[in-house]
Amino acid sequence: MRWHSEHHMEDGKMCHPSDAPAWKHFDGCFPDFSSEVRNVRLGLFADGFQPFVQSGQQYSLWHVVVSPYNLPPDLCMKEEFMFLTVLVLGPTNQKGKIDVFLQPLKAELKSLWGGGVQTYDISKRQNFQMHIALMWTINDFPAYSMMFRWSTAGMLKKDVLEWVKKLRFPDGYASNLGRCMDANKLKMFGMKSYDCHVFMQRLLPIAVREFLPNRIWEPIIEISLFFKQLISSSLTDEELRYLDEQIPVILYNLEKIFPPSFFDSMEHLPVHLTYEARIAGLVHYRWLYPPERVYLDDIVDDDMFEIFKPPGKAIGAEGKRYLADNEYTTAHLYVLMNCPEVQPFIDVFVTEKRKQFPNLNDEAINVVTEQEFPS
């Protein structure tokens, strides 16, 4: 927890939020807090999602996570140091009442900032009064609108969409982008934030190069490379200043090829990102992907049988039909017999049948289990 005060930048490269001017400015504004290097500096992450989207059931779940920034880069924002503090769930979105659910957390943070709490430092074998500061909050734009009452509201060729639909990615690299493409309506939908990053930084330069003239293709490549460089794991102030100088030119070139209606707050947002990185530090310490991966995977997968967790892939063209009764029964039996979660219940069933019919052999027990257990 003292690493941030013992660490020093090498070759002017930022590798941790403590290297950023915002951290140093905070130290200057609150010298009493910064004089105790063991005081904790937190980031707060908030995001909402629907955990049962595949089943079509309407349900809303908001999770609020805090994570300490005192730790070195190899520990900072890792799963074991992300702490779930608030969980807001229900059949409807609680966005109008989210501030009510956050009141206990706000009260505790204010108490820890002002009065602190006596804490034992096991490395020095002494007690000290630990205080906590909330450095910043990290949300996507819809969450900003819901939590802070900010107003955040604001075509691709068919060949490109068809190309994206055919792409296959390594497991965990990106979601199935093919499901987010509608080649008939020339629309993309349902993409998560990380999918947009993958598309912007990795796919878009390849996708448009074949279909567009250079004067249109080049500005699109420039904005892709801008984002790719901005999220690097280490950056110098000189590199950030160069990006800061280039982004107005890139947006100007984009304005020459896209209509004015294309540009809203999201398209102008990149102008501010380099300044934010120079002041607050590297981007990947201030984005939602780590807590999303940790808590969304845990929450969604824990309600799912083990047999359904391995990713499946479609074979051939998509289609839809209803199972016949015998097919449904076979599928039902297969799932039950191949789920580790169900095995203890099968063992109890078999034990009871052996007590009831002690003369049945193993083959007969298997037949009885398949016929009677699913019902």
Q: In words, what does this structure look like?
A:
With 375 residues, the chain is α+β, with helices and mostly antiparallel strands. 45% of the residues lie in helices and 14% in strands. It has 15 helices and ten strands. The strands form four sheets. The chain has a four-stranded mixed sheet, with helices on both faces. A two-stranded antiparallel ribbon has the order 1-10. Helix 7 (193-209) packs antiparallel against helix 8 (214-230) and helix 9 (237-255) runs antiparallel to helix 11 (270-280). The longest helix is centred in the middle third of the chain and has 19 residues, at 237-255. The radius of gyration is 27 Å and the shape is flat. It starts with a helix and ends with a helix.
Summed up:
The protein is α+β, with helices and mostly antiparallel strands and 375 residues long. It has helices spanning 3-6, 21-29, 31-34, 98-114, 141-148, 158-165, 193-209, 214-230, 237-255, 265-268, 270-280, 289-302, 325-337, 343-356, 362-372; strands at residues 13-14, 40-49, 60-68, 83-90, 117-121, 126-130, 132-138, 181-182, 187-188, 235-236.
